[in-house]
Amino acid sequence: MSDETVVSETTPLPSPQLHAKLMRGWGRIIDRMGKGAFADKIQCGVPGLNKQLTGSMPSFEVIDRAFAFDKHVLDDWLAAHQMRAVAANAVCDIDDMQLVLARALVMLNEAEHPDGPGGRAITHQEYLAGEAMMRELQAASANWLQKCTNIRRPTVVATS
Asked: Is the pTM of this model over 0.85?
């Protein structure tokens, strides 16, 4: 029986699959900034980078340089092991949204309760009493959607 609060068991990936997962991260960076710029960041020449892209496994030192430059470079490899990299001092930025959602759900359940002032229908007073809560929920969801927009927005134009 496994404990979900502990790192789950995993098996090593076959070398070709490991290489492919790592190169997906390399490819995302190259698409974003260009091959030469990425080679400079990992202190590797373009011919050496081309060797890595076509099958040569980079050293751990080179992988470490890539990770120091882009914290998402190992995402595909980590996902294959059902893991993800998170900063040790990371704070969950959706805790407040979870609380707002829970409070809004309780408010809605109370407003629609058959024993409430309007029965299952929400009264004007209940709408107005819940306005601040719903505006807080709207702001939290707008923040979430803005983060999605920011993730999709390219940060650098590649100039291979």
From this structure: no
